[in-house]
Automatic annotation (TrEMBL):
GO terms for molecular function: N-acetyl-gamma-glutamyl-phosphate reductase activity; NAD binding; NADP+ binding. Its main location: cytoplasm. One of its GO terms (cellular component) is cytoplasm. It catalyses: N-acetyl-L-glutamate 5-semialdehyde + phosphate + NADP(+) = N-acetyl-L-glutamyl 5-phosphate + NADPH + H(+). Residues 2-140 form the Semialdehyde dehydrogenase NAD-binding domain. This is N-acetyl-gamma-glutamyl-phosphate reductase. SMART domains: Semialdhyde_dh. The keyword NADP applies. Its EC number is 1.2.1.38. The active site is at 148. It comes from Granulosicoccus antarcticus IMCC3135.
């Protein structure tokens, strides 16, 4: 399969390269970076020496590359302008940005502060959370890959919301992300001296992942969904840790419920009762590890979810979606264990 990557010099782009370059069923034929066009990929990323023998290209040239599938690992507002030319030619696309994730265009425009230039493809796009939409993803031409926070939060709440066991009007997600979540672009708040040895919340009054998570949860239930979502910046490189709270409306064996819901899911691991999953247990992997608790047997379910924001939260999930779309084994190239310690 011939694969192209637009935005190959960013963090999710290099993660796509790390995971795809070792596969013998995939030929990477195109990697773009406007700033790096003409330079060798392994000059920018020596980690790929011996694995990727390509130069960065200009994104405009991808239309001539005749790819089976193209990834957009670009900032929000890019794919909606560039991908339609490929989509109209029949190329399949996985967009890692938020351009095609929200079905309500007015809501997207409010949260992203831009006019949407391609609502017709938003309608046709399939949201790329395989644990919810596996069949639709397999036949989609355009997949909107979920955001990093939305992946962990939706997977953690999924069994509870789907089974109607919680008050969906009072859900709480307290979530922490490593700094690569902010991308590779230079910015003062992301400097080592600014972000390390410190910890803070941000976006408390509103983060653009709120409508995405609420849209996903609403698709799991006929009930009204309302979420309080507070993101935090953790002084680590990779990893998301979500602590999710929901009021139970009945007595239920939560451990059994979670184990049954994810029994056939290759990339969701329900840990034994009482576990406290760590971000390092998923570093570099496509796994989301969950643990479900009911402290003191009172009526609140507390779900802990960890994932690597660059893998299950971005590039790994994008490849999981690619595998489904191209009729390849879903887990192909994604089963390596975490790097420890
Ligand atoms: N980082 C994360 O953990 C996650 C990120 N995402 C989303 O994935 C996307 C990529 O994120 P990330 O890799 O972190 O971003 P980076 O900022 O690290 O990289 C962005 C890439 O896009 C390219 N790019 C920028 N502007 C354009 C443009 N107008 N046309 C073509 N290429 C462009 C850049 O190269 P150049 O400018 O040289 O062309 C670079 O290769 C974003 O939409 C992000 O929100 C989603 C989930 C998690
Ligand atoms: C730590 C950090 O800054 N994280 C990013 C989320 C990254 C992501 O998933 O962004 P998209 O939805 O745009 O794809 C943020 O809060 O903006």
């Amino acid at each position: 399969m011939r694969i192209g990557i637009i935005g190959g010099s960013g963090y999710t782009g290099v993660e796509l390269l790390r995971l795809l370059s070792v596969r013998d069923d995939i030929e990477i034929v195109f990697i773009s970076s406007r700033a790096q066009a003409g330079t060798r990929v392994d000059a920018l990323f020596p980690s790929l020496r011996g694995h990727v023998d390509l130069l960065f290209s200009d994104p405009d040239d991808v239309t001539d590359a005749s790819c089976d599938l193209v990834f957009y690992a670009t900032p929000n507002g890019t794919a909606m302008n560039q991908a339609p030319a490929l989509l109209d030619k029949g190329t399949r696309v996985v967009d890692l940005s938020a351009d095609f994730r929200l079905k309500d265009i007015a809501v997207w425009e409010r949260w992203y502060g831009m006019t949407h230039t391609c609502p017709e493809w938003v309608e046709k796009a399939v949201y790329g959370l395989p644990e919810m939409y596996r069949e639709e993803i397999a036949s989609a031409q355009l997949v909107a890959n979920p955001g990093c926070y939305p992946t962990a939060v939706q997977l953690g709440f999924l069994p509870l919301v789907e089974a109607g066991l919680v008050d969906t009007g009072s859900l709480i997600a307290d979530v922490k992300s490593g700094i690569t979540g902010a991308g590779r672009g230079a910015s003062v708040p992301n400097l080592l001296a600014e972000a390390s040895d410190s910890f803070k919340a941000y976006g408390v009054s509103g983060h653009r992942h709120l409508p995405e998570i609420e849209q996903g949860l609403a698709n799991m239930t006929a009930e009204n969904v309302s979420l309080t979502f507070t993101p935090h910046l953790l002084p680590i490189i990779r990893g998301i840790h979500a602590t999710l709270y929901a009021r139970l409306n009945q007595d239920v064996d939560l451990q059994k419920l979670f184990e049954a819901r994810f029994a056939d899911e290759p990339f969701v691991d329900v840990m034994p009762a009482g576990a406290h999953p760590e971000t390092r247990s998923v570093r570099g992997t496509n796994m989301c590890r969950l643990a479900v608790h009911q402290p003191q047997g009172r009526g609140t379910a507390v779900v802990l979810a960890v994932e690597d924001n660059l893998v299950k939260g971005a590039a790994g999930q994008a490849i999981q979606n690619m595998n489904l779309m191209l009729g390849l084994p879903e887990t192909k190239g994604l089963l390596q264990p975490a790097l420890m310690p």
